[in-house]
From TrEMBL:
Record organism: Neoarthrinium moseri
Domain FAD-binding PCMH-type: 64-235
Annotated signal sequence range: 1-23
Keywords of this entry: FAD, Flavoprotein, Oxidoreductase, Signal
GO molecular function: FAD binding; oxidoreductase activity
Family, similarity comment: Belongs to the oxygen-dependent FAD-linked oxidoreductase family.
Protein name (record): FAD-binding PCMH-type domain-containing protein
Cofactors demanded by this protein: FAD
A matching Pfam family: FAD_binding_4
UniProt cross-references to SUPFAM superfamilies, sorted A to Z: FAD-binding/transporter-associated domain-like
Length: 503
């Protein structure tokens, strides 16, 4: 029922690989045949669960509280997508569009026995003559970075290369370059969108401006984005970035956060990106801390920042690398290991202004106890992303549907990962407890709960995701009524059509 969101994931250690299936050619013999008949033009692109490649084409990143599917539709072009949407909405069939497939919100569990619209055939990235980039909705961040970077350009992207780029943009799009260029969505020039009835519309600053506003922060509510054009920027430092990974024992937590808080209090360098992961040693189950420092500038300046931490680290690696290779060297044990599909991922998160050391000490000790009591959940992690703010704040508050331009300092994620489902209930309770703890104003530093929509769960007030201002509620609800009058895109943090539905 929606274009799925993507998000940046912080996951520690090796994850279990999902069973691999070999792709097979499409077959007419596996089309679903019931009282509803797919239009002839697209019938060969629709398959039921008896198709040999069905599992491969419908498996998503997380299996926690997942949607379920009894058909999959793989449109080959825009016309096919339009025909398919018109048929599905007319037949009253529930559907979910999949771009990257990394959306993990339990709100998706409401989508059952649905048709997955798999958008893998819209996997394209092209740099245009004016140095903008056209992005197909099926492309991953890794593909976007490769094409844009090889053209000597850059834009804000998430840290995880296997996340769908378009889905991440629809929720805002945080990333290491946000201090320089703003969010991924801030670079959006225009988008082509397929509406619920198959109508194709364009949204930009010149046409359908209301939809253009809503796509940037709440975009999954209004239709299926087919492709979009983004601004790009000249590569910083010739595309070369300094990256350093460091490890620390648990007793160094106070020192790690003291350094981080000093950098924040001094005013974080817009180009500096910090990531902190609290995880566990897979053998001893003792907590350990990882810190990644990325600086797209001179090596000496990057080293200057890293040395603030490395003076008391247990280990350190550092290198200059091309932006196109950064995802392979910056915290690879955390980021790359989070890419395999088909595992249980349950995450809660909170945005904070402050990183109060004493509260992270309490969380680490609680994490230690939890992992020792539930060793099969030792891949779970507390992950903190601290990126520059200047680029986000350079845009006015009403620039887009993204609501957090002055409340986006630190993303704190409690990511519970496990294969043993017997720990699911305890893992959920633990993460929820600590999300709520850090959401308290005296801990977070914000007056109200602030949630980055791409990292949201399903229990937060919608205002925490989309903003507390009444004018935002009015504008978003009006868009919902206009572009999704039947509520067919309600499966992922749905904007209510009526103001009474806001929480």
């Amino acid at each position: 029922m929606l274009l799925e969101y993507s998000l940046v994931q912080g996951l520690l250690g090796a994850l279990l690989l999902a069973p691999t299936t070999v792709a097979t050619p499409y077959s007419r013999n596996h089309r679903r045949r019931d009282e509803y008949v797919w239009p002839t033009e697209v019938a060969d692109q629709a398959h039921d669960s008896s198709w040999p490649d069905f599992v491969n084409k419908t498996t998503r990143w997380s299996t926690y509280e997942p949607p379920s599917f009894n058909e999959v539709f793989l449109p080959e072009n825009v016309e096919d997508l339009s025909i398919g949407l018109k048929y599905l909405s007319g037949a009253g069939k529930t559907f979910l569009a999949k771009s990257g497939g990394h959306g993990y919100s339990p709100t998706l569990h409401a989508i059952q026995d649905a048709v997955m619209i798999n958008l893998e055939n819209f996997d394209y990235v092209t740099v245009n003559e004016d140095l903008s980039v056209t992005l197909g909705t099926g492309a991953k961040f890794s593909e976007l970075v490769e094409v844009v970077g090889n053209a000597g350009r850059e834009l804000t992207v998430g840290a995880c290369p296997c996340v769908g780029a378009m889905g991440a943009m629809l929720g805002g799009g945080l990333g290491r370059f946000q201090g320089l260029h703003g969010l991924t969505s801030d670079a959006l020039r225009s988008a082509r969108v397929a509406l619920w009835n198959g109508t194709i519309v364009e949204a930009s600053a010149d046409v359908n401006q209301d939809l253009f506003w809503g796509l940037r922060g709440a975009g999954q509510n209004f239709g299926v984005v087919i492709d979009a054009i983004f601004e790009t920027y000249a590569a910083t430092n010739g595309g070369q970035q300094y990256s350093s990974d460091m490890t620390f024992s648990a007793d160094k937590l106070e020192a790690v956060f003291d350094v981080t808080n000093q950098l924040l209090s001094d005013g974080l360098d817009p180009a500096l990106a910090l990531a902190i992961a609290i995880g566990s040693n897979p053998v001893t189950l003792e907590p350990l801390i990882l810190v990644n420092v990325v600086y797209p500038g001179p090596e000496e300046k990057g080293q200057e920042y890293a040395r603030l931490y490395s003076n008391f680290s247990d280990s350190m690696t550092e290198q200059m690398t091309a932006w196109t290779n950064l995802a392979n060297v910056a915290l690879p044990s955390v980021v790359i290991s989070g890419c395999p599909t088909g595992n249980q991922h349950n995450q809660y998160s909170i945005m904070t202004k402050d990183l109060k050391t004493e509260h992270f000490r309490e969380a680490l000790e609680s994490y230690r106890s939890f992992v020792q009591q539930h060793p099969t959940a030792n891949n779970s992690v507390i992950f903190i992303e601290t990126f520059g703010q200047a680029g986000i704040k350079a845009f006015p508050d009403d620039f887009s549907a993204f609501p957090h331009r002055n409340q986006f300092d630190n993303a704190v994620v409690f990511s519970m990962t496990y294969a043993d489902v017997s720990v699911a209930e305890d893992a959920d309770a633990w993460a929820l407890q600590w999300r709520d703890h850090f959401a308290q104003p005296e801990v977070s530093g914000y007056d109200k709960m602030v949630i980055y929509q791409n990292y949201a769960h399903d229990d937060e007030p919608l205002s925490a995701l989309y903003g507390y201002d009444g004018w935002r509620h009015e504008r978003l609800s009006a868009l919902k009524k206009s572009y999704d009058p039947q509520g067919l895109f309600n499966g992922y943090h749905a904007v209510p059509a009526d103001l009474a539905g806001w929480s």
